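thought: fold this chain, then report.
action: predict
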Amino acid sequence: MQGKRQNQWILLAFIAASILLPQLTRARFTQHILIMVVLYAVLGEAWNIMGGYVGLVSIGQAAFFGLGSYISSFLFVEYGINPWIGFAAAGVITAIFGILVGLPVSRLRGRYFAIGTIALGQMMKVVFENWQRVGAATGLMLPLTKEGIINFQFHTVKLPYYYICLAMLFAVIAFMRYMERSRLGYYFKAIRENEDVASALGVNRTVYKLIAIGISAGITGMCGSFLAQYSLYVEPEYMFNHTISVTIALIAVFGGTGNIAGPILGSIILVPVSELTRAWLGSSGTGIDLMIYGAFIVLICVYQPEGLMGIVQSVKDGALARRERSGVHG
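observation:
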């Protein structure tokens, strides 16, 4: 009971801090880092649904991310459709696309599934680089409109983007808390532990894998749509870049998979490292952030395979053990 109350206080403190802390700074670069931290936390949670709860390790999330960014951008540029409608359409269409491509890919296991997702990401990049209807390699430039929440554009301040992204994160956290306590979450974990046994017990592994892929793809597509509105420009080289896929996976693994807090913790640590490294070193530091990521991952794999949340859990277990010993001696 005490542990549950403590977790509730930690959750409330996190919510209060995430809402109030951005108000303490007016530096645009600091606000940009905060936006990227929250955005990649959402992306990490989307990956976590597949990789952490179902065991489908994807290294091709950029396929969904880029597709989502192009859906909303194309609808806005070509037909003048409101970006919020494009944002919702990006989520729905990317989810459907994820399910469709998941039909053959979900039959793969382990490293073969990961290789299949890498191939998907690269294939999407090549398709959009040569698709003249959507600007090919040049991409699409989104037109400037009147600033405001209705048009999903803010030219003088960045904080509204932060709070929109924060609302996305809270919505994803709420869904995952529900998922963990529902039949869906139990089936996901059963497939992760041993899909043959889960299938023998009556779990339709193909259906639930496709559900996980669809949910993950839909959330990732909406994140791509958000970044398109934030940057007002999309191009295949950036939106389908393999680095995005790798970064998403590393953030989730570094923080700890199979739980809600892990990707958030991973994003809080790794994203500022990446952004500050690029800012300090400029073009001469290209790839340095990924080298730092790699060093962190190696250390985590060697000393704590369960990620940062494994360290947190070890500290909590140690504190509980000391409390129990002191109670016995008292």
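thought: worth noting. The mean pLDDT is 88.
final: tokens above.
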